[in-house]
């Protein structure tokens, strides 16, 4: 029988199979709401779907994307996100009653990591950011990793997102440690090194196999962890650039199996570039018992990681594919998380998110939440001094035209009189 914990994982799995969820790692905890869709959506929240498992996730993505697009979100949208933070600094996936005390079992490292990055992008929320970073410090596992929910084994996705948040907060992940293992050590534990087959080196697994058997490469884990491996966070600025392709992991006889920190970003970049080139420009979701399907989320994060790593040319084909397929993933612009992620991808790749694959992603995203305070596309009103200059300039132009017209008329009259008089004798 499916427990409430497994029902949550099953719901996320179904969404990922459909290729529609920009979802974090699965939470093995019961739902914080009794039934799906039982209550109306709160004011200020982006997206129209059930908020139970992804409300803070999609809100954080939306606010980060809008901020990067120079759109000032409504105060209610920001207040909703800050109001979800628990007293200890963490965020849950969603809590319907923000006035009630948080139950730590529902706190979520993925939601917390994205919320921290979002508030940093917005600016002006340093206290909430500091509390969120402290929560990440206290919930780190002894091996340096993070789990979706504290107390569980760590995973690559959650660890990568936590590293992104630390980097956004200007905290060196190498200084965030438990039992002698820092955040980079925790991330490295999920990356395949020289002991793996050559075509898998650099990839990430979701979790290490407990019995020591080789774990399967995971596309979403590789895509999401790549941004952390390359030293990035959201939003990706896209300023790095290298004309060379990412370097595959060099493995000599007797080489250490772990991927050195200095080589981590290039190694996963080489793996992702090869997968995109051989997979019709996208990564693929493979689930036992189900046919392989395109993995939109993994492809988007892979593109972000490649751009951050200085390889936008290797990401370009994936960005093109996302532009072509974006309408399917975002459900015509109605999925807030997917739409926001596409905005972030477009911006990182230096494309126009207002004309990405024939869609205005920024406009689509703004319609999924409260009206923003200010939009980048709105023309700035002229200042009084500028208006006065424009007015003075117009008057000067009219006087110039008038004087020229009078001179022209006068000149014409003189010539006419001369003709009537005939030539001088």
Structure, described:
Residues 1-27 form the signal peptide. It comes from Kitasatospora misakiensis. This is Prenyltransferase/squalene oxidase repeat-containing protein. The chain crosses the membrane at residues 398-417. Residues 60-148 form the Squalene cyclase C-terminal domain. The protein is mainly α and 425 residues long. The protein has two domains: 4-35 and 44-366, Glycosyltransferase, CATH 1.50.10.20; 384-425. It is built from 14 helices and four strands. The protein has helices at residues 4-17, 55-68, 75-83, 109-122, 126-138, 156-168, 183-188, 219-229, 261-278, 296-308, 312-329, 336-348, 361-366, 384-421; strands spanning 177-178, 181-182, 284-285, 293-294. The strands form two sheets. The chain has a two-stranded antiparallel sheet with strand order 1-2. Strands 3-4 form a two-stranded antiparallel sheet. α8 (219-229) packs across α9 and α10 (296-308) packs parallel to α12 (336-348). The longest helix is centred in the C-terminal third of the chain and has 38 residues, at 384-421. The radius of gyration is 28 Å and the shape is globular.
């Amino acid at each position: 029988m499916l427990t409430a914990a497994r029902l949550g994982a099953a719901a996320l799995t179904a969404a990922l199979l459909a290729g529609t969820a920009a979802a974090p790692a699965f939470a093995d905890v019961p739902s914080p709401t009794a039934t799906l869709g039982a209550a109306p959506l709160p004011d200020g929240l982006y997206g129209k779907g059930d908020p139970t498992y992804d409300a803070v996730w999609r809100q954080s993505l939306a606010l980060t994307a809008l901020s990067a697009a120079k759109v000032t979100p409504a105060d209610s949208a920001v207040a909703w996100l800050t109001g979800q933070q628990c007293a200890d600094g963490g965020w849950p996936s969603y809590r319907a009653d923000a006035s009630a005390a948080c139950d730590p079992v529902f706190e979520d490292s993925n939601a917390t990591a994205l919320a921290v990055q979002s508030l940093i992008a917005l600016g002006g929320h340093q206290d909430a950011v500091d509390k969120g970073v402290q929560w990440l410090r206290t919930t780190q596992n002894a091996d340096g990793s993070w789990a979706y929910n504290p107390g569980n084994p760590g995973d690559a996705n959650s660890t990568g997102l936590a590293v992104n948040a630390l980097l956004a907060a200007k905290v060196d992940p190498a200084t965030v440690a438990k039992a002698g293992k820092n955040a980079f050590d925790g991330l490295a534990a999920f990356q395949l090194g020289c002991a793996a087959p050559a075509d898998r080196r650099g990839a990430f697994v979701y979790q290490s196999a407990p019995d020591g058997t080789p774990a399967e490469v995971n596309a979403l884990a590789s895509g999401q962890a790549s941004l952390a491996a390359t030293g990035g966070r959201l939003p990706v600025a896209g300023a790095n650039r290298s004309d060379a392709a990412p370097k595959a992991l060099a493995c000599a006889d007797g080489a250490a199996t772990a991927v050195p920190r200095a080589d981590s970003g290039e190694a996963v970049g080489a793996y992702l570039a090869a997968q995109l080139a051989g997979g019709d420009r996208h990564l693929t979701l493979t689930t036992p018992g189900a046919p392989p399907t395109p993995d939109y989320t993994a492809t988007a994060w892979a593109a972000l990681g490649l751009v951050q790593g200085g390889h936008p040319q290797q990401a370009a084909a994936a960005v093109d594919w996302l532009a072509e397929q974006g309408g399917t993933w975002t459900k015509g612009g109605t999925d807030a998380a997917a739409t926001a992620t596409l905005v972030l991808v477009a911006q990182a790749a230096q494309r126009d998110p207002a004309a990405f694959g024939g869609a205005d992603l920024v406009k689509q995203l703004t319609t999924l939440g409260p009206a923003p305070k200010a939009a980048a596309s709105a023309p700035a009103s002229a200042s009084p001094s500028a208006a006065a200059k424009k007015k003075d300039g117009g008057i000067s132009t009219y006087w110039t035209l008038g004087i020229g017209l009078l001179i022209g008329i006068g000149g014409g009259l003189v010539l006419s009189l001369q003709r009537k008089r005939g030539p001088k004798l």
